[in-house]
Design a protein that fits this description.
Layout: E1 4-8, H1 14-27, H2 38-46, E2 53-59, E3 62-74, E4 79-89, H3 98-112, E5 118-120, H4 128-135, H5 151-158
Helix pairs in contact: 1-2
């Protein structure tokens, strides 16, 4: 029986988190998009204006995965939820219960905080979709994730005018 430990990340884990984020990005074929720095993770994850939290998973004492999450809110239900930004388990630890334990801990945190929902996005080609289905999650077929970054956000912000 593998020894799996799940704990909250602390500021000293910023380097480890960044390493795991880079591994996830490489797996998702998006390595060139990672511009985050350890300082960014320390500032936004562990500073006075926290924007995310993270869990670290260890297998037999070795860090092998993480879950990074943040609060969200459903206007329809009038309830808070948790948004899982990233979940990653190193290949050598997959199939050993690490991912399931990370999700179970996240679900326990959500319920303890009065959040009845967990939301996340999965790339269409990612085989982890089967893992999520086995846990009971379902794709939200009627909803598509949309977003804007960089120049689009800057262009739109230039259109904002203060009402005198």
């Amino acid at each position: 029986m593998p020894n799996i430990a799940i704990r909250f990340a602390v500021a000293e884990d910023a380097g480890l988190l960044l390493q795991l984020i880079r591994e996830l990005a490489a797996y998702e074929r998006l390595a060139e998009q990672v511009v985050a720095r350890e300082e960014d993770l320390r500032r936004y994850g562990f500073g006075p204006e926290r924007r995310f939290e993270a869990l670290i998973a260890a297998l037999d004492g070795e860090p092998v995965g993480f879950a990074l999450f943040l609060p969200d809110f459903s206007t329809f239900s009038g309830r808070p939820g948790l948004f899982l930004e990233d979940l990653y388990v190193r290949e050598k630890a997959r199939g050993r219960g690490v991912g399931r334990r990370l999700v179970a801990r996240l679900a326990a945190i959500a319920l303890a905080r009065g959040c009845p929902a967990l939301r996340f996005n999965v790339l269409r080609w990612n085989p982890a979709r089967g893992f999520y289905r086995r846990l009971g999650f379902a794709a939200r077929e009627d909803w598509q994730p949309w977003g804007a970054t960089g120049e689009v956000v800057r262009r739109l912000a230039r259109e904002d005018r203060e009402d005198g």
